[in-house]
């Protein structure tokens, strides 16, 4: 095995336990450590005197420990606090350890001179202190100038200290950095003026004391630039190759059906929006072409994606093929079925709903009919349609909102050459869509049907809740319905559940005594959730308290108020999607974000964007700027590999350059067969695995 592929466990100091912790953080090999870049730096180049220490600033100080006290305050279950006096010629300050007092007491007894580093705070007794400082013994003969340096700070598992993390990375880099191979072909590297990979890695992990700290902090040194380009180039090359492989496949040709479409449009009680017309044309053209379609249609909730989906289905069926329409939940599938059936019936399209509630015999007969070609369209959940369903001639798979708020896992019906149309209600900023679905074609349904009013959104404090409850009661008295949504945070799932449950109970017995309160939470079985949603949709519940949000994807035009608890825990894009659930009927929608009591001004400011921004793409851009791409990429389920050097907000320009360069390179060497492409090929194999079939390319 190549040394970069060696397990971290074989590095000095990393035993099985630490290896396990690192593994949980996504670090398995020596190579992973080498590419684990610091996220900030500490400036330890100057050693001011204690008298020059400033409260709130971080600093390194050189001096001696001149006194030690162990304090045992009451109420800490006997745990001691260590308080040492640190002095130089100019004065003294305290070093404080709240944990492991005995251990540090022993450590500091071991040397005379110390270099200490930490954030300077005011101590309760009026002096200065460093809490949990980094400390380093300085030998009598050692020249302190040799200790001047800029130190990297790494993201790390909680139970591994920063010092240990630093030494693991340093060891990995020292021994193996020259083995790291760049995926950027030499001619590209030269043209872009990038420094060699090993130099760049050495520099970012241990910058020399004369490095420019502000460039380091902004990740804008030449070394950072080289690493960022490296990462984005390989990523874009992978995406472009995947796209090329897809388009090299032979797809089905399904010619446009203009008469059928006119007939369909005449069935609608409204005119399609300009955006709907444009996107329908884009989809139609893809389907008529000989390459398989892979298109993502993005559009806010209510932008009318169903019409676009049906038009595509019609084109497939008129061309003699079958179509499948898949939704994430049973209820959403039913909703689509109910919307589409009248159109399909009028146009002679034989449609069935593959529901989980069907008996075995009924499900069987639908599957048989699909296999025999007696059905044109099947609607169901992803699971139902993907599992063991065979088609006689599947031409089109439409996949609705399979992602859960942004994380898009692409589904494919195995072994079919069918066209794929993905629908998403979470608009993705362009930079992200290049990374997440750069191999897809993207259409934006960026225009709402006429007369649709934006949902009025207000951020309130929880102290204003009584007035909110009055407003809800008034709406419900007029026959409207309301949602109250709680975020579901995995680690505190129980807590949220308790919150929502007690909220539902106290509302039912208090403010909403005369209304019907329903509860929907993640612990319920799918059928139970379904039953509650059904009652809400049928109007048998006035207010729905929900800890789980995907089921809220259902269309209930009568719902006019959406209340979101702990809105700070949601991404803005999620909040936008949530509020799209109200105001779908004749009444204007109202969305109330009930901020928790301990909101920072920044957090409130972020929420207030929702008050003034009504376009989903604008919200998504703001969200990306404020929270970074984690929400979209977080789980790495998106089909694109994670990024460590690049930041998709900061590095937009580099991303575009990398895409351009990758495109040019692949145009010259589409098979990656030139010697200069060898390492790129290797990097792609490593990072993309079998998501790219490189063997076929080469
Ligand atoms: P999405 O799936 O994008 O959230 P839907 O397809 O469910 O949106 O459409 C939302 C509502 O808007 C539906 O009631 C639909 O009939 C209606 N609608 C769709 N297109 C138009 C349009 N061009 N003009 C008016 N209403 C429309
Ligand atoms: Mg929809």
The CATH architecture of the largest domain comes to 3-Layer(aba) Sandwich
**Helical content class:** 25-40%
Number of domains: 4
**Which regions are unreliable across 5 or more consecutive residues at pLDDT < 50?**
404-409, 633-641
Q: What about the largest sheet?
A: 7 strands, parallel
Please identify which CATH superfamily of the largest domain we are dealing with. P-loop containing nucleotide triphosphate hydrolases
Query: Which strand-content bin applies to the residues?
Result: 15-25%
Q: N-to-C terminal Cα separation, in Å?
A: 24 Å
What is the CATH fold-level name of the largest domain?
Rossmann fold
Count of helix runs: 25
Task: Please state how the strands of the largest beta sheet are arranged side by side.
Answer: 11-12-10-13-14-9-15
Instruction: Evaluate the radius of gyration.
Output: 30 Å
Mean pLDDT: 86
Number of strands: 21
- What overall form do the CA principal axes indicate? globular
Structural class by sheet pairing and helices:
alpha/beta
Q: Can you put this structure into words, describing what you see?
A:
It contains 25 helices and 21 strands. With 698 residues, the chain is an alpha/beta fold. The protein folds into 4 domains: 92 residues, no CATH class; 102 residues, OB fold (Dihydrolipoamide Acetyltransferase, E2P) (Beta Barrel), CATH 2.40.50.140; 188 residues, P-loop containing nucleotide triphosphate hydrolases (Rossmann fold), CATH 3.40.50; 158 residues, Rossmann fold (3-Layer(aba) Sandwich). The strands form 4 sheets. The protein has a 7-stranded parallel β-sheet with strand order 11-12-10-13-14-9-15, with helices on both faces. It has a 6-stranded parallel β-sheet with strand order 16-21-20-17-19-18, with helices on both faces. The chain has a 5-stranded mixed barrel with strand order 2-3-4-6-5. Strand 5 and strand 6 form a beta hairpin. Helix 6 packs across helix 8 and helix 8 packs across helix 24. The longest helix has 27 residues. 40% of the residues are buried. Bound molecules: adenosine-5'-diphosphate (ADP) and magnesium ion.
């Amino acid at each position: 095995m190549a040394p970069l592929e060696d397990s971290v466990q074989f590095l000095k100091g990393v035993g099985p336990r630490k290896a396990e912790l690192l593994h949980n953080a996504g670090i398995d090999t020596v190579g992973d450590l080498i590419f684990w870049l610091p996220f900030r730096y500490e400036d330890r180049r100057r050693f001011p005197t204690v008298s020059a220490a400033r409260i709130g600033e971080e600093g390194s100080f050189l001096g001696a420990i001149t006194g030690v006290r162990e304090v045992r305050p009451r109420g800490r279950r006997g745990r001691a606090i260590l308080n040492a006096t640190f002095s130089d010629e100019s004065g003294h300050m305290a070093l404080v350890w709240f944990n492991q007092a005995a251990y540090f007491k022993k450590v500091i007894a071991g040397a005379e001179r110390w270099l200490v580093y930490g954030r300077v705070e005011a101590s309760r007794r009026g002096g200065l202190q460093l809490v949990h400082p980094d400390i380093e013994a300085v030998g009598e003969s050692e020249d302190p100038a040799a200790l001047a340096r800029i130190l990297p700070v790494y993201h790390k598992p909680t139970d591994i200290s920063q010092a240990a993390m630093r030494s693991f990375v340093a060891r990995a880099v020292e021994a193996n950095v020259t083995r790291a191979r760049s995926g950027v072909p030499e001619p590209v590297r030269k043209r872009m003026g990038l420094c060699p990979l090993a130099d760049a890695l050495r520099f970012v992990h241990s910058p020399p004391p004369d490095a420019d700290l502000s460039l380091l902090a902004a990740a804008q040194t030449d070394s950072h630039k080289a690493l960022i380009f490296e990462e984005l180039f390989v990523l874009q090359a992978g995406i472009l190759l995947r796209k090329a492989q897809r388009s090299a496949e032979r797809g089905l040709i399904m010619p446009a059906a203009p008469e059928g479409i006119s007939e369909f449009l005449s069935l609608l009680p409204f005119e399609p929006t300009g955006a709907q017309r444009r996107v329908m044309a884009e989809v139609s053209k893809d389907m008529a072409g000989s390459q398989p379609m892979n298109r993502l249609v993005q559009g806010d909730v209510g932008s009318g994606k169903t019409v676009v989906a049906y038009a595509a289905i019609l084109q497939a069926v008129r061309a003699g093929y079958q179509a499948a329409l898949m939704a994430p939940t049973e209820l959403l599938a039913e909703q689509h079925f109910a919307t589409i059936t009248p159109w399909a019936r009028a146009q002679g399209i034989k449609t069935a709903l593959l529901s989980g509630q069907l008996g075995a015999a009924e499900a069987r007969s639908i599957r048989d009919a699909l296999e025999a070609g007696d059905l044109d369209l099947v609607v169901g959940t992803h699971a139902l349609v993907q599992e063991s369903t065979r088609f006689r001639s599947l031409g089109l798979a439409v996949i609705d909102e399979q992602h859960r708020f942004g994380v898009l896992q692409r589904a494919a019906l195995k072994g079919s050459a069918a066209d794929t149309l993905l629908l998403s209600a979470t608009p993705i900023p362009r930079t992200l869509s290049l990374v997440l679905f750069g191999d897809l074609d993207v259409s934006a349904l960026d225009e709402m049907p006429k007369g649709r009013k934006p949902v009025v959104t207000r951020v309130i404090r929880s102290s204003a809740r009584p007035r909110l409850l009055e407003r809800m009661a008034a709406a419900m008295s007029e026959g409207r319905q309301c949602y109250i949504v709680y975020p579901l945070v995995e680690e505190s799932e129980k807590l949220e559940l308790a919150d929502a449950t007690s909220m539902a109970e106290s509302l039912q017995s208090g403010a909403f005594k005369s209304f019907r309160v329903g509860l929907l939470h993640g612990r319920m079985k799918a059928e139970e959730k379904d039953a509650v949603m059904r009652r809400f949709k049928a109007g048998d519940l006035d207010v729905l308290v929900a800890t789980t949000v995907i089921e809220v994807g259902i269309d209930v035009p009568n719902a006019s108020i959406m209340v979101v608890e702990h809105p700070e825990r949601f991404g803005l894009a999620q909040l936008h999607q949530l509020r799209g659930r109200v105001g779908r009927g004749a009444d204007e929608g109202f969305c109330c974000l009930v901020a928790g009591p301990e909101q920072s001004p920044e957090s409130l400011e972020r929420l207030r964007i929702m008050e003034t921004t009504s376009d989903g793409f604008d919200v998504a851009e703001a969200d990306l700027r404020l929270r970074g791409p984690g929400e979209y990429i977080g789980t790495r389920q998106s089909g694109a590999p994670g990024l460590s050097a690049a930041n998709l907000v900061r590095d937009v320009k580099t991303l575009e350059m990398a895409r351009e360069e990758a495109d040019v390179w692949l145009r010259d060497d589409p098979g990656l067969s030139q010697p200069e492409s060898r390492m790129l090929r290797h990097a792609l194999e490593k990072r993309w695995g079998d998501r790219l079939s490189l063997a076929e390319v080469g």
